[in-house]
Each structure stands twice: as C-alpha cells, then as structure tokens.
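Researcher: Checking consistency across runs. Here is Flavin reductase family protein again:
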Amino acid sequence: MSDGAAHSRTANADPDTNTEADANTDVDTKSDAIDGRRFRDVLGNFPTSVVAITTTDAEGRPHGMIVGTFTSVSLDPPLVSFLADRSSTTLRTIRAAGRFCANALAGDQERLSRKLAAGPARERFADTAWQASPLGDPVLDGVVAWVDCTVVQTVEIGDHLLVVGRVRDLRVESMKTPLLFFRGGYGDYLSSAALLLDRLVGWDEIGR
C-alpha cells in the first residue's frame, strides 16, 4: 500500500460519514439531472384532490387559488398544510390575513376550479356563490368539505412556500365525489378510479 493510499484511509476513517456524504452527493447529482417535464409527468400519476384555498382581504373582498397539495399534518394539535408558489398574489393576501379556508371541490366543479386557477384575480369570484366561514373566509357553495384555519407557520421550500394552518373549524358539506387532478387532467373520484383500473387490466385494449 502506498503512503498516499494510507493517508487517504486515515483521513476518512469514519465509514458511516463517508457513506452518507457520498450518498448525498449522488442524490444531489441525480436531482440536478432530472428534467422538469419528466418530473411533472411522473408526479402526475399521483392523483391529488383539487382544493380551493380562500381568504378575504382587509376590505372583505374574496381571494382564492387552486392547489393540489393540501394535506393533514398533525392530529394534536390539528394542523394542515398546502404549498403555493412564492409569487402568488393570493398567498400574499393569506399571509396578511393570517387565515384561510381549504375547500375540497366536488366532481362537478371543474369549471369553478379552472376559473379560480387561471382567471384574473378580480374576476375569480364573479358569479361564484359562497358563505363566510366562522373566521370570515369564503366557503364555496357545492363543495365536499371545508377546513377553516389560522396560519401558524410558513416555510420556504424551493420555489414554493409551505403554509401550515391550525384548524379552527371544519365540516363535511355533501356526499359528492371529489374533483381530482390526475395525469394532467381533471376527473372525479369514480371516473379516475375506473380509468386507472381499465388501464391496469387492459380493458381499454378491447375492441381496438
């Protein structure tokens, strides 16, 4: 063994530390190499509930946006969260208000979802019926359920902010099936589940 090899092994005497460092380097390298389009295409295979996050500004005007990242975080205390682009104007209003309501959209509310997702901010609530939650946030008519929250923490993660909310009130409004976002398109729970099953068993090949 050469002196150089012996010195190298002595300098890196902790194999656990080396393994972790090498693994982190490999992960970072692989992450940097992932194409954005491929990233979105693959993650699109994870169905997500379409949720409208709403709030009101200082003048009582409603604001809202669509997310596919709403999830529960903790049971005790009751916490939920969602991710939003840091450039979102609705996010700025939510942080200023310190509260928000998560509305689980129903399968028949695709048009409303598109309106809240891409429409001009001042027109998103035009002809949209809603009632004020206990905290004063918009609860949209016809939703499956809603969760009313106060903001307890925001965390910068990449190009998004993770917003964590403390649940103050919540309610199931209907037994409708929820609106889902799956493989780049909309669908309700039943239609998306049926499509996935058809593809898995090959039924979509019959008759071709």
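Researcher: Does this match what you'd expect to see?
Model: One thing to look at in this run: The domain at 48-196 is CATH 2.30.110.10 (Pnp Oxidase; Chain A).
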